[in-house]
Amino acid sequence: MELVVIGSSSKGNGYVLNGTSEALCIEAGTKLIETKKALGFDLQKVRGCIVTHSHNDHSRYAKDYADAGIRVLALPDVLEAKGITRNGIAIKMGNAYRLGGFVVMPFAVQHDVPCVGYLIKHSECGKVVFITDTYACDYRFSGVNSYLLEANYSDEILEANIAAGRVSAGMRDRLLTSHFEIANSIRYLLTSDRTALQKVVLIHLSDGNSNEAQFVQQVREAIGKPVYAAIGGMVLQLNASVL
Ligand SMILES: [Zn+2]
Ligand SMILES: [Zn+2]
Description:
Blueprint: E1 2-9, E2 12-18, E3 23-26, H1 32-38, E4 46-50, H2 56-59, H3 62-67, E5 72-74, H4 76-81, E6 88-90, E7 97-99, E8 102-109, E9 115-122, E10 126-131, E11 146-150, H5 155-163, H6 169-176, H7 182-190, E12 199-203, H8 212-223, E13 227-229, E14 235-237
Parallel strand pairs: 3-4, 4-5, 5-6, 10-11, 11-12, 12-13
Antiparallel strand pairs: 1-2, 1-14, 2-3, 7-8, 8-9, 9-10
Helix pairs in contact: 7-8
Bound molecules: zinc ion (2 copies).
The site of one zinc ion has 6 residues, from helix 2.
């Protein structure tokens, strides 16, 4: 299955898992037209759109997705904030939802507003875990084939930016209780079962407080698997198991 990255930053997050006959949208922080383009204008194959939380870089266009007939799965506060009454499914933590051949299960992660991660299963991509906008996640999963995992900032780069006056000191306090620092991302992977792991895609890198090449190298050295940093327009193959 193809992973199409439409956007992966505080400007807007949108991803599509595009299979042979069905697709799943992850997040609605990028325009529906971009998803349409990614799918060759075949929205019929979309089985749903799963949203993690209410911040606009993840949910700004959620109503457009619902209005286009796509089921939008999100926490009740997201559906309410976006005025979604039709095609909205209010998720409950730990429940599993079947969307065509996809099964998705939301789990709680810690952010500065209610937020979930998703365990996603499909025969074409196997087990995929999606985690973004969090400073702590208590859940671990076995047999995961691919992670889409936030790696938002580096303490070292942030401190240098604060010292140089490029970033306010208050930003540090906010990030500490909202986003994954690169060492957290690495620790999360190192404390997770990696026996079936094939690929890690680092997502939601901060514009000013991250270093793409350095993050990719650090994670690759820590886990010894292929690692990518998500950027808009990127297409990666996510497979169920090694052939
Ligand atoms: Zn975000
Ligand atoms: Zn957020």
